[in-house]
Design goal:
The complex is a heterodimer of chains A (405) and B (413). Chain A is an alpha/beta fold and 405 residues long. Chain A is built from 17 helices and twelve strands. Chain B has a six-stranded parallel β-sheet with strand order 3-2-1-4-5-6. Chain B has a three-stranded antiparallel β-sheet with strand order 7-8-9, with no helix packed on it. The longest helix of chain B is centred in the middle third of the chain and has 23 residues.
């Protein structure tokens, strides 16, 4: 018998879609929560239409982005325009501890699934609404993806070269920040409910969560009037600090020295011990000042070696260094392999596929990650029968009535 | 909402945000620093560039809603005192290199023997074990290892990171959720456990599942200035406006193509393209490019059409249009723009803390979510060095005045 999982008694009714919301319930499923995901065939989850796709097959069931973010959840497809579908949802609300949604504000109200309505039938329900800018305010209805919130939060202007327009972070940055705050928040609400019996509503603006990661420049800008603009790979605490050329096409290695000891070790490792005491480089301030020349010298050494060799040689000397792993490299990274980061699972339509494991390990109650993301509506029958206890005849009426949208 | 939950925060600069999140959620977080103060206090930048243990912006950023004590864990007396605190604690957070605290008799095995219900959270660059567990690290190193650094920057230059360090913030935010999952379990079982957070795995979330592509026989994703390369297709996300830059999504498929259809309808109405261009199959367009049914040159022409449209508008004009017509366009904000954004102001998001003693008036990003019943409050500014020593060692732990004075004199606290 497997260990009882931490969230084995937690039931989640999940209307969330795209990236930022479903990341929350994915983590809950990893640790044992039963997550029933409501999907629609009319409005397919956008992540089902975005890759990586297994074998580059753009069938929505082949999206690893969707599969990874929704692994371990149950899928019920419903046509929410039908009154019978509404009754099913309300039955699931009675079953659930937590209802999550990530539509733009008003969608849930339009269906009659706003917090006040749900609380009327389940007084201790916890409900999380997660949207780009929050449920209130002039931009409440501005909907979209994480790249838009990342732009509005100022993340784009922090990635770039000083002599060019900003490159910006990869894709939809706030979608990778917000779910962590969402998870901590719903866990705190579940803990509060366990102790007091009280449920509540949670309004998550993904932008407001993500701005926690910019606390430092915000404090600094307001208090000191400093301006933050793109500075490529420069750093206030490290010199050298950069990404250096390596042997191979578009291959790079990252190197960062914080302390004088690391700097000395680097000089020795690259066969230039005399540089350690060179007046241009013999203190952090000097190295920072002379960083262009410093980067040139280091680059001369790195460019003829593979990034892995540089990583190995420098790490052996205690110098922070790492291959800039391409996404393909990372798949074979021995550390990620050791941590069992990639998990093979079976999908009913796509067949054998892969997902990423829980990003943290609990020693006594480790995550159980062995189920793929669901096919659209895969568990409708199971949910009617086992979770809602509907009779066979009721289920066939629902199917015949076209409720499984 | 976590009131009554006591957290001992032993973290270095890597782990500070985790305790702050738990403090925001109402936990009683005690930041434990060595005598003289945490090394984080000497990190740049400093307010107005004046160094001082109470002036590091880095310290101020991640230590609100904590009380602070000093305790020398290099000495037996200090470790004994920590063990006394552990006996009454619910969570402990640390971010030393794997095994370092165990060498001092303060590892998970040691402390769970004192308090089996303790949830012990470790935040490290690569996790507690594995071939890279003892690697020397930094924000840049973790980003490189996590498959994220490779995805940002211009394709004719080296990859670049976000210049405000992010790697450990991802790990800390993961750690807060993980700690609460373990704490929830403890409420059911009475048992604690060791939570092991690896920053490499945490940051890899920001690679958006592209780390799976290799084993799935899918296209590789590569960096591109202001966008992304997906196989043969270069997708721009940053575009020029008349007075600056905007982000705009110009993508295809059954979900994203719907937005592109709306965008092209508007662009056509404004006379920036003909009807044949407007009426392309935006749902199938990505497939058409991938299969060669539509030449890449035609896609390049379309990007030119969108670029011409966006260049004709100011950032504010484009944003207004986006809001009215449900388009995916937003301006690239500076920090000053963020502070002036009417949305955050209307929601009374910004929280100010005034420190008259230091002459600082600080503006923090506000609560990360709004709870209906148990709102997040910014109850405490970050602690001064040893600010709560008396309160915690005398009142909470019950040391006698004499013991306290002895330990102070010996430099343990």
């Amino acid at each position: 018998m497997a260990t009882r999982l931490p969230l084995g008694d937690v039931k989640v009714l999940d209307f969330m879609w795209v990236l930022a919301g479903p990341g929350i319930s994915r983590s809950m499923a990893d640790y044992g929560a039963t997550v029933v995901r409501i999907e629609s065939t009319q409005r397919v989850d956008p992540t089902r239409t975005v890759g990586p796709f297994k074998d580059n097959n753009t069938n929505p069931e082949f999206s690893a982005l969707f599969g990874n973010n929704n692994a371990g959840k149950l899928s019920l497809s419903l046509d929410l325009s039908k009154p019978e579908a509404r009754a099913i949802v309300l039955d699931l609300v009675r079953w659930a501890d937590l209802v999550c949604e990530s539509f733009s504000p008003k969608a849930m109200r339009a269906w009659g699934f706003d917090y006040e309505s749900l609380r009327a039938i389940k007084p201790d329900i916890i409900m999380l609404s997660s949207c780009l800018m929050g449920q209130t305010g002039p931009l409440a209805r501005f909907a979209g993806f994480g790249n838009l919130a990342a732009a509005l939060c100022g993340f784009y202007n922090l990635v770039g070269w000083p002599d060019r327009t900003p490159s910006g972070p990869f894709s939809a940055y706030t979608d990778y920040v917000a779910p962590r705050f969402g998870l901590a928040s719903v866990m705190a609400a579940l803990i509060h409910r366990k102790r007091t019996g009280e449920g509540q509503y949670i309004d998550q603006a993904q932008a407001e969560s993500a701005l926690q990661f910019l606390t430092l420049p915000i404090l600094d800008t307001v208090a000191s009037g400093r301006k933050y603009s793109p500075i490529a790979n420069d750093d206030l605490q490290h010199a050298p600090h950069g990404v250096y050329p390596a042997a191979g096409k578009d291959r790079w290695v990252a190197i960062a020295c914080r302390t004088d000891a690391q700097w000395r070790a680097l000089c020795a490792a690259i066969g230039q011990p005399q540089l350690a005491d060179d007046r241009r480089f013999n203190s952090f301030a000097a190295r920072y000042e002379s960083r262009v020349e410093l980067d040139r010298i280091i680059g001369e050494w790195t460019r003829n070696r593979t990034p892995d060799e540089t990583e190995r040689v420098l790490q052996a000397s205690g110098v922070p260094a790492h291959t800039v792993q391409t996404t393909f490299d990372a798949n074979g990274d021995p550390q990620l392999r050791h941590r069992e980061h990639f998990v093979r699972v079976n999908h009913p339509i796509a067949g054998a596929t892969f997902i990423e494991n829980s990003r943290f390990k609990l020693s006594r109650t480790p995550a159980v990650v062995n189920r793929a993301g669901p096919a659209l509506g895969q568990h409708s029958q199971y949910i009617f029968e086992k979770i809602l206890g509907y009779s066979e005849s009721r289920i066939s009426d629902l199917v015949a009535g076209g409720v499984l949208g | 909402m976590l009131n009554g939950c006591r957290v001992l925060d032993l973290t270095t600069e890597r782990g500070l945000l985790c305790g702050q999140i738990l403090g925001d959620l109402g936990a009683d977080v005690i930041k434990i620093e060595p005598p003289g103060g945490s090394a984080t206090r000497s990190l740049k930048p400093f307010f107005a560039d004046e160094p001082g243990p109470e002036r590091s912006v880095y310290w101020w950023a991640y230590n609100r809603n904590k009380r602070g004590v000093t305790l020398d864990l290099a000495r037996d007396e200090g470790r004994d005192l920590l063990r006394k605190l552990v006996a009454h604690a619910d969570l402990l957070i640390e971010s030393d290199n794997p095994g370092d605290l165990a060498k001092r008799g303060l590892g998970y095995a040691d402390l769970s023997a004192i308090n089996p219900a303790l949830v012990y959270v470790s935040i490290t660059p690569f996790g507690q074990d594995g071939p890279k567990a003892s690697y020397a690290d930094s924000d840049l190193i973790v980003m490189a290892a996590g498959g994220v650094l490779t995805l940002s920057g211009d394709d004719d230059r080296p990859p670049i990171r976000m210049s405000v360090p992010q790697a450990y913030l991802h790990a800390c935010a993961d750690a807060a959720g993980a700690a609460l999952i373990a704490y929830y379990d403890r409420l059911n079982t009475g048992l604690g456990q060791h939570v092991d957070v690896a920053a490499q795995q945490s940051v890899s979330l920001a690679a958006q599942s592209t780390l799976l592509a290799a084993t799935l026989n899918a296209d590789e994703t590569r960096r591109m200035a202001g966008g992304v390369k997906l196989g043969p297709i270069s997708v721009p996300l940053v575009w020029a406006a008349r007075d600056g830059l905007v982000t705009c999504v110009f993508l295809f498929g059954s979900a994203l193509g719907v937005f592109t259809r709306k965008l092209m309808n508007y662009i056509c109405d404004q006379g920036f393209c003909d009807q044949a261009t407007r009426d392309k199959d935006w749902i199938a367009y990505g497939d058409m490019l991938l299969t060669g049914r539509e030449p890449i040159e035609e896609y390049d022409r379309l990007k030119g059409v969108v670029a011409n449209f966006l260049r004709s508008k100011t950032k504010a004009e484009s944003f207004d249009i986006a809001r009215q017509h449900g388009l995916l366009i937003a301006p690239l904000a500076t920090i000053d723009d963020v502070l002036a954004n009417p949305q955050f102001i209307a929601r009374e998001y910004w929280q100010t803390i005034e420190d008259r003693e230091l002459g600082l008036k600080l503006t923090y990003p506000g609560p990360f979510v709004r709870f209906g019943k148990t709102p997040i409050a910014y109850r405490r500014r970050p602690p001064r060095v040893g600010e709560h020593n008396r309160e915690i060692f005398l009142d909470d732990l019950g040391l006698s005045a004499r013991e306290f004075d002895d330990l102070s004199r010996m430099g343990v606290i």
